[in-house]
Write a structure and sequence with these properties.
Elements: E1 12-19, H1 30-46, E2 49-56, E3 60-67, H2 73-92, E4 104-108, H3 111-127, H4 142-147, H5 167-179
Antiparallel strand pairs: 1-3, 1-4, 2-3
Helix pairs in contact: 1-2
């Protein structure tokens, strides 16, 4: 029986995630993470997708992205997962499915959901006890927003720009939202 087609908005924000088949580790070495990010960077340009937040966990990937007219999420994810699978198979002489089914996604329609989703994505390594602080994990967008470390993968979130009038203000406010003592409370932009 064929899969049913999924329909996505022409423009909007979507949280996508893909997991390794049987929770298999997708990234074993730093070069694996770097290769995935290189592929992601190339495809975001060619497929006209904006990447606002991401985190590459050892066995799964989270991306909060933006679609614009001309974007095709299904094509983007198919190409991303396929290109990385080909790389992985070549490096590991691996046979079979690398990814557990097709990617999962959730449409983000509200500002508060957008912020919560970005925070959830970037705190994944902390919650998984890989690192104690999100800035210690090198394969996420957290350092771009919280510390001002330029990341070619990240397109600045439109909401991030509203956090202050200077880079320093925005970074301070962002850190407070994600890891500050009031991070679990409601926040305002």
């Amino acid at each position: 029986m064929p899969r049913t087609a999924r329909f996505f908005p022409v423009e909007g924000y979507i949280h996508v995630y893909s997991r390794g088949n049987n929770r298999r580790k997708l990234f074993l070495y730093p070069r694996d993470f770097k290769m995935f990010l290189q592929i992601l960077d190339k495809l975001k340009k060619s497929e006209m997708v904006k990447i606002f937040h991401y985190c590459l966990m050892p066995n799964h990937v989270h991306i909060l992205l933006g679609l614009v007219k001309g974007s095709n999420l299904s094509t983007f994810m198919k190409r991303l997962n396929l290109k990385y699978s080909l790389y992985y198979r070549k490096k590991r002489t691996y046979v079979g499915h690398l990814w557990q089914g097709r990617f999962k996604c959730r449409i983000i329609e509200e500002e508060l959901s957008f912020i919560r989703c970005g925070k959830y994505i970037e705190l994944n390594p902390v919650k998984a006890n890989i690192v104690r602080q999100p800035q210690d994990y090198p394969y996420s967008s957290y350092c771009h927003y919280a510390l001002g470390i330029k990341d070619p993968i990240v397109d600045d979130s439109p909401l991030y720009m509203n956090l202050g009038s200077t880079d320093v203000e925005r970074q301070l406010h962002y850190r407070e939202i994600v890891i500050g003592e009031n991070a679990d409370k409601e926040f305002r932009i």
